[in-house]
Write a structure and sequence with these properties.
Length: 348
């Protein structure tokens, strides 16, 4: 006679499985964190390949050599990303003094109505330039001492760009290499899983890019009409942060509203808030269902948990990479469910 009842033994078996899975996942995360300078460029390159694959394939179909098509695609990436960074930085430089002065004026106005709380805001605005200079000095000292995050980021970006070139150029060999490495008779299932995962990431990246472009254009036009300083830079910020679902829109929208409040006053800030909220409602109820209806659908709670976990592991890059990775996992799960006949969960 067994010492434990059957339900308890089943529960213990599931606990052992969960502990093993958690241990393997923890070891994998630790290894990725330890070798982040190699892992992050590979993941970024895979995202770039998924996003730029259609453009590359069109060039190849038009008759261009694979190397030339991959090179032109990478040049286009550098031009677009560099242009977006330049627009944001130039807008911040041009309007930085004006924004700080407006913040100080707004803080003084708040101080007249709310006393100590407003005085604290005034002090923060007054000391903002000093804080920025101190931060810059600290960063400079870190660069001099060799602990340079900027240098590491540039190196990873260059490596990711080179990997995008090779991934695009040699993409036609990927399936053959995967089937060669597959053990036993698992080549077909591994190929199907890899295709489904890459299709999920590709659909997510293309849909997110199109939605981000529409959001940036709509919000940028609204801010230009409201005469908010740095409207073009804020629109570029909206486009960049849109790759972080939910949280990115909140951050970029908050910045836009704060700039409008500091420079144009409370009424214009309310209009700016209305523009941001209206665009987000349009995205959630029209753009997301229409554009990403054929990609992997993820519950918002899953997305938020993925973003939180990614931020705890790798900061901003973790937030950027977590959702595409979850999309790929959902794609693999869908392939396994279809292949082995697991029924879909019912809504009832």
């Amino acid at each position: 006679m067994p010492l434990l009842p059957d339900p308890v033994r089943r529960l213990a078996a599931w606990c052992v499985v969960l502990l093993l899975v958690a241990a393997v996942a923890w070891v994998g995360v630790r290894l990725c964190a330890e070798f982040r300078t190699a892992v992050i460029p590979v993941l970024l390159a895979l995202l770039g390949t998924a996003l730029l694959g259609p453009l590359y394939r069109r060039m190849v179909t038009a008759g261009l050599h694979r190397s030339l098509a991959a090179g032109l695609t990478c040049v286009a990436v550098v031009a677009v990303v560099g242009g977006a960074v330049y627009i944001v930085v130039a807008a911040l430089i041009d309007t930085g003094d004006q924004i700080i002065a407006s913040l100080r004026a707004a803080a003084k106005s708040v101080a007249q109505h709310f006393g100590a709380a407003g005085t604290g805001l005034d002090d923060l605005a007054a000391n903002s330039r000093k804080l920025l200079s101190r931060f810059g000095g600290t960063a400079a000292s870190n660069v001099i001492s060799g602990v340079s995050v900027v240098g590491e980021s540039i190196a990873m970006a260059v490596l990711a760009l080179l990997l995008v070139f090779f991934f695009l150029r040699d993409s036609h060999r990927a399936v053959g290499a995967l089937r060669t490495l597959a053990p036993g008779n698992t080549a077909d299932i591994l190929e199907a899983m890899a295709r489904r995962a890459f299709e999920a990431v590709e659909g997510f990246m293309r849909g997110t890019t199109l939605i981000a472009l529409i959001d940036a254009i709509c919000i940028g036009i609204g801010l230009l009409i409201l005469q908010v300083p740095g409207a073009v830079g804020l629109a570029a910020l909206v486009f960049v942060t849109a790759y972080i679902p939910y949280l990115g829109a909140f951050l970029s929208g908050s910045v836009a509203v704060l700039v409008a409040l500091a420079d144009r006053g409370f009424v214009i800030a309310l209009w700016a808030l209305g523009v941001v909220v209206g665009v987000q409602v349009l995205e959630g109820h029209v753009l997301q269902p229409a554009i990403q209806s054929r990609t992997v659908q993820m519950h918002p709670a899953v997305v938020m948990l993925a973003i939180t976990a990614g931020a705890s592991v790798a900061g901003i890059l973790g937030m950027l990479l977590s959702v595409p990775l979850i999309a790929a996992a959902f794609g693999v799960a869908a392939e396994l469910r279809e292949r082995y006949g697991v029924p879909e969960p019912s809504d009832s």
